Amino acid sequence: MPKTKTVKDYIRTIKDFPHDGIMFRDVTTLFADARGFRIAIDQMVQPYAGQRIDKVVGLEARGFILGGAIAHQLSVGFVPVRKKGKLPAAVISEDYTLEYGEATVELHDDAIQPGEKILVVDDLLATGGTAAASIRLIERLGGEILSCAFIIDLPDLGGRTRLETMGMEVHALCSFDGL
């Protein structure tokens, strides 16, 4: 009998991308496989079944793919956090530091109402910079973050610790050691 595949089995690793020494964890192979994608979404939704969640916030860009599917499964709204300049209406912004520079994320200023229960979703947790900046945006609008959910955690880069230090609950379906 063949071994049942796990989410981790569907993820491709690309050596030395985008720089030498980096092991890029590519979730597009997971997304392209109907069974793998279904397993990932089901497992990401499972911890929140029966909880009151008002909106899923997906982080650009793979968090949109996951967030939309998760919001659909939970029958709640979806809100995108975008890179600077991509949202058409009034926004609030948050600058943050990346491992290779600086960036800004934005959220429509009317996307979340005070007291709404929020689930933050993205594909990968590395340093936690994008997630932390997004959390600060959500909190500025009065959203209450229940949890942050990822497919992959890269524990050696410290993102989980960073988010947990902010008081966040973090779920990840799998982890990979190293960069």
Automatic annotation (TrEMBL):
One of its GO terms (biological process) is AMP salvage. Keywords: Cytoplasm, Glycosyltransferase, Purine salvage, Transferase. It catalyses: AMP + diphosphate = 5-phospho-alpha-D-ribose 1-diphosphate + adenine. InterPro entries: Ade_phspho_trans (IPR005764), Adenine_PRTase (IPR050120), PRTase-like (IPR029057), PRTase_dom (IPR000836). It is an enzyme of class 2 (transferase). Transmembrane segments: none annotated. Its EC number is 2.4.2.7. The keyword ATP-binding does not apply. One of its GO terms (molecular function) is adenine phosphoribosyltransferase activity. One of its GO terms (cellular component) is cytoplasm. The keyword Transmembrane helix does not apply. Residues 46-155 form the Phosphoribosyltransferase domain. Pathway: Purine metabolism; AMP biosynthesis via salvage pathway; AMP from adenine: step 1/1. Belongs to the purine/pyrimidine phosphoribosyltransferase family. Catalyzes a salvage reaction resulting in the formation of AMP, that is energically less costly than de novo synthesis. Homodimer. This is Adenine phosphoribosyltransferase. It comes from Roseovarius gaetbuli.
